[in-house]
Amino acid sequence: MTDLEVAVEAARAAAAELVARQGAGLLATKSSATDPVTEADHAAEHAIRAVLARRRPDDGILGEEGDDVVGASGRRWVVDPLDGTVNFLYGHPQWCVSVALEGHVGVVLDPLRDELFTVASGEPARLGEVELRGSSCGDLRSALVATGFGYEAAVRERQAAVAAALLPRVRDLRRAGSAALDLAWTAAGRHDAYFERGVHEWDVAAGLPLCAAAGLAVHRLEPQDGQAAGVLVAAPAIADELLALVTRRGA
Length: 251
Known about the structure:
seven-stranded mixed beta sheet; globular; 2 domains; about 35% helix; Fructose-1,6-Bisphosphatase, Chain A, domain 1; five-stranded mixed beta sheet; D-Maltodextrin-Binding Protein, domain 2; 8 helices; alpha+beta
């Protein structure tokens, strides 16, 4: 099997566990009382690790819910078994599975819509069999910009100040709740741009290659003013202006 086929198999195995466990409820919390983890998270990551152990036993793996396993091959899979856990718990249909092999492939699977976003090194980003091209928006004032917020109140307060400064300068903002799916949707042209601070490797490992392959500008956001590092992707013509606004001191 190719690496992409393995990634798709792993993502679909996780999705089967998630769909079967919708409504199973809260297991524990992680970084704060508003950062939940569910039984479904653990079952889905176990399913991914089982596929990778069978198909790529020498590779390393980093997952949100499990150990960082160092492999013998020098290659590493980075997986998020359930991105959008709060949405999953509340029944909001915006959550996904993210599976990436660093530098090689990325898969974002939306089980509820049966939308499979894929990318392999040197190949186009795809939704199913359709090649993706990101937004060609040329004016920030007409841009639909997606973002996300952290779980801790103090973090959200700083992020809200950035959003408030940006909102009058763009068409509108969208906050859906799954970073990986936000990136996939931006690669598909459903947003003109996306930015978020405080994301982890497993949140963006599959989505960033999708956006790059779809022709979008991809930037890393450095830590600033007490805010964590992050990512920004945008239509190339608006990327620099958006980046300047998002990183403006005191914003």
